[in-house]
Amino acid sequence: MEFTCNILFFLLLLLSSNLLTLFISTTFYSSSCSLNSQLQTTAATVDEPDLPSEFVAFTSPQKLPLGFNRNFDSEEILPSVGSSCTILQRDLRRYMSYQVNGSCPDDELLSQKLLLKGCEPLPRRRCRPSAPRHAVEPLPLPDCLWTTPSDASVVWSAYTCKNYTCLINRGRDQKGFDDCKDCFDLGGRESRRWTGHAASNLDFTIDEVLATKPPGTVRIGLDIGGGVATFAVRMRERNVTILTSSMNLNGPFNNFIAARGVVPLYVSISQRLPFFDNTLDIIHSMHVLSNWIPTQLLHFMVFDIYRVLRPGGLFWLDHFFCVGDELENVYTPLIESVGFRKVQWEVGRKLDRGEELNEMYLSALLEKPLNNSW
């Protein structure tokens, strides 16, 4: 009897030990799995995406060197890859509020504000944009090249001036600043740009520039921030096709460009140029590329210009503005790092606001090497 009790006690002890071991091991294993899972989840949450450093450098907000800019309504610029739209939720919500298949809101100022803040390209919309009520046919070529178009070709609600007569006269009558203030006056300074004898060594003429290449090899190109497209018109008269990028900064620049019979490109300076590599013969920009652009963004821009120019293509940097030793210490090294060959390089003082400000202009004609341009 005693032996039987001892055996039963031993079996009970053994069973209890096994159950305890099973409980401890199961609990510990389950907790370990749960802990590991939590650690993995936490790690996935905490770790930042592994993005290329150049992508981060390009898409990060960049402070404008000259501070707040009223055209951008900001003191910084977001270079555009489209995703910047999601940051501008209030404006984006307004822009995307419309009746499907109906008329779009009359919101040119809002759409331009989104573009300039980096929401580029803008989302597509399923509505019809505002258009002139009493539109007329454009003037035929070549009359349209140097004739002010009809007021009926524009929706004027977004602009201070409500007709072309006001725009033509604002250079004389209007106080304060406006982008390209006098360029709607085709009988004024616009009629003399890039032709005849140069006013100074900074003023290259179109014929001088074309003469640096074999005849007929400059055929297509782009004017960045080209105002009312007088450069494109001059080139068209020489059988060269130029697209003109321009915004509508308190004036219907894109409408005016199209009415003149040349092609407007409604993109900001932040956008990657919409051309394939090694395709354009010439790129020109006057005044727009200057020290108001964040230096790193400007570096990206000049490399993008280099990218789309064909080997042997020309980059005409026309009246690049800077101050003091910026040209020597910042912008000359920046331009030289890209790989252009200097065809012409002219530096002069900008004196219209006083010599004491030490303001400088650079006009340069640069060539992408014909051979070994990579």
From TrEMBL:
GO CC annotations on file: endomembrane system; membrane
UniProt subcellular location: Endomembrane system; Membrane
Entry keyword Cell division: no
Pfam families the record matches: Methyltransf_29
Keyword Membrane in annotation: yes
One Gene Ontology MF term: methyltransferase activity
Transmembrane segments: 7-29
Bilayer topology: Single-pass membrane protein; Single-pass type II membrane protein
GO biological process, one term: methylation
Main location: membrane
Keywords, comma-separated and alphabetical: Glycoprotein, Membrane, Methyltransferase, Signal-anchor, Transferase, Transmembrane, Transmembrane helix
InterPro entries: Prob_Methyltransferase (IPR053223), Put_SAM_MeTrfase (IPR004159), SAM-dependent_MTases_sf (IPR029063)
Family named by the database record: Belongs to the methyltransferase superfamily.
Protein name (record): Methyltransferase At1g29790
Organism: Salvia divinorum
